[in-house]
Amino acid sequence: MALEHAILVSLLEQPGSGYELARRFDRSIGRFWTATHQQIYRVLKRMEVDGWVTGQDVDQEGRPDKRSYSVAAPGRAALTTWLREPVQPETVRHELAVKIRGAAFDDAAGRAALIAEVEHYRADHKTTLHRYLTGEQRDFPDEATLGEGQRLQHVVLRGGIAYERMVLAWLDDVLDTLHGLGR
After folding, report:
1. H/E element holding 159?
2. What confidence tens digit (pLDDT) does each residue in 157-175 have?
3. What is the reported pTM?
């Protein structure tokens, strides 16, 4: 997937400025596709040149003007083409998993350092899970009242929640195993 597709989906959900898009990426889209603010602005400008999005200057009282973007017909056509293409399964590359396997060839001091690294990794995933659960309560309090788009957004979030729970369970297993070595 290209960043362009994630931007098109976001703008179809709600038109907005580059800053607003960057905030959406930080808050929700970033759960499954990350991009820096600079990348978003750069790609957005290219998409405007290519005719995929249109920009409109919006006056703001007491603040600099902003440029608000929406999806143009060529952008919608490009997204439709991409949506209908088959998705290839992602190749998993997990550096921490390789380190864990390599622990068999390290000494107790090395394993202690790995335990600290796994604990830090676990804390990051616990924070992410908490953020997802908080967002779910905030954005999807009543499944019965959600529209089609919101239900699709929610199912993606539920996938992220399930993934974080799976990673946390695996990391707990890793820590139990590492702590049990050498006993």
Report:
1. helix 148-180
2. 999 999 999 999 999 999 9
3. 0.78
Contact 21, 39 (CB under 8 A): no
pLDDT computed for residue 155 by the predictor: 93
SS3 51: coil
> How far apart, in whole angstroms, are the C-alpha atoms of residue 131 and residue 28?
10
> Measured in Å, how far apart are the chain's first and last C-alpha atoms?
46
Helix, strand or coil for residue 102?
helix
- Burial classification of residue 7, based on how many CB atoms lie within 10 Å of its CB (0-12 exposed, 13-18 middle, 19 or more buried): buried
Q: Looking at the predicted structure, is the pLDDT value of residue 4 above 90?
A: yes
181 conformational bin, left if phi > 0, alpha if psi -120 to 50, beta if neither? beta
Cα atoms in the Cβ-side hemisphere of radius 13 Å centred on 62: 0
Q: Tell me the chain's radius of gyration from C-alpha atoms.
A: 21
Residue reference for tokens 């970033």: 30
Q: Look up residue 14 and give its amino acid.
A: Q
